[in-house]
Amino acid sequence: MDLKSNHNSPVLTDPASLSKSRLGLPSNMTPCSPAALPFSSSVSSPRKKLNKDLISECQLDDNDAAYQTWMINYPSALNSFHLITSYAKCKTVALFLDYDGTLSPIVDNPDHAFMSSAMRAAVREAANHFPTAIISGRSRDKVHEFVKLSELYYAGSHGMDIMGPIRISESVGDHPVCIKTTDSKGKEVHLFQPAREFLPMINEVYKSLIEITSNIIGVKVENNKFCVSVHYRNVDKRMWDEVGLRVFGLIKGFPRLRVTHGRKVLEVRPVIDWNKGKAVEFLLESLQLSQRNDVLPIYVGDDRTDEDAFKVLRERIHGFGILVSNVPKETNAYYSLRDPSEVQEFLKSLVRWKKFTASQTEDYNIDLMCIG
Ligand SMILES: O=P(O)(O)OC[C@H]1O[C@H](O[C@H]2O[C@H](CO)[C@@H](O)[C@H](O)[C@H]2O)[C@H](O)[C@@H](O)[C@@H]1O
């Protein structure tokens, strides 16, 4: 169950049924009905138990069949690794990674979404071989606190808070919301905060959201600097509508803010023409990787907000989006990975491939030198 993507309506819907009909999956992929099973409703309890097991087994099979069908259009990035690297050959791969649900598993408490040390090692290695950035809905400081790596770039608040390399480009480098500063290690960087003027408003809304949801058990309001998250994952399902009503009700009084939603979370953010897709373009330009046809951007993410980036990669900058999901979803991504453990495997494979191609180039150069 989730909130509908219609920004004006807090109506709750079931995304599983939605995605099934929208994806046009075959009708035989609906979950088994008990009537189709060889037990009557008046069976004794062990039989009832068997019946229940059979239904869930059947549903699992159906879900898996639906996923396999979906994967025809969104193949596994691991299974398609050779194809991906054949495109990447002789190109600079630029990596963009979402955080929650991509580098860390989804957990009930957002403050406990820790990254495993194995994942951290994989991301570090990847960042040592490819220009890498993390683009998260979290505040930039919070995601840095989780990731703890200085080898890469960070964009927080869905791309509205980017700390990147010093931009050579005059056009945006001189933009009033882009300032020169130093990072925690004293290195000169550019800080790009296109929603800076919204800071007082966001802080006001953050306080009001805490106030108006304080008597709903399980709600958690998280300040992500340029946006606010209202989590309802731990709220009794019967109260989900009420959470939606209160949040949308409050935001009605702030025409310059809007509400989007992610995984059991409502996100209040400024109405500005900026999103994770724009952040990818901004970072590519900062890294001097835009306007080149020897660059392959790859974006890995699991959330609806990542769709903006997938769209930019698909339509504008010729890269690959990889959706992390273990259920069929509508997406602008090209490939899929089931969960963060597959993301880790994918990152490790990319590094292995890069090392291998680098060693081959070295061998080739040595051969050339010998011939010369
Ligand atoms: O862009 P992301 O890095 O994916 O951030 C999106 C939101 O992620 C976090 O919430 C989600 O993960 C939590 C921890 O696993 C989970 O408890 C919650 O239900 C998810 O929605 C984060 O807390 C939000 O602020 C981000 O906007």
From TrEMBL:
UniProt keyword annotation of rRNA processing present: no
GO terms classed as biological process: trehalose biosynthetic process
Coiled-coil annotated residue ranges, if any: none
Catalytic reaction(s) noted: alpha,alpha-trehalose 6-phosphate + H2O = alpha,alpha-trehalose + phosphate
Enzyme Commission number(s) from the entry: 3.1.3.12
UniProt keywords, alphabetically: Hydrolase
GO molecular function, one term: trehalose-phosphatase activity
CDD domains listed in its UniProt record: HAD_TPP
InterPro entries: OTSB-like, Trehalose_PPase
Biased amino acid composition, Polar residues: 1-20
Broad class of enzyme this protein falls into: hydrolase
Pathway membership, UniProt: Glycan biosynthesis; trehalose biosynthesis
Keyword tRNA-binding: no
Domain of life: Eukaryota
Pfam families recorded: Trehalose_PPase
Region (Disordered): 1-23
Cofactors required: a divalent metal cation
Similarity field: Belongs to the trehalose phosphatase family.
Function: Removes the phosphate from trehalose 6-phosphate to produce free trehalose.
Protein name: Trehalose 6-phosphate phosphatase
Species of origin: Zingiber officinale
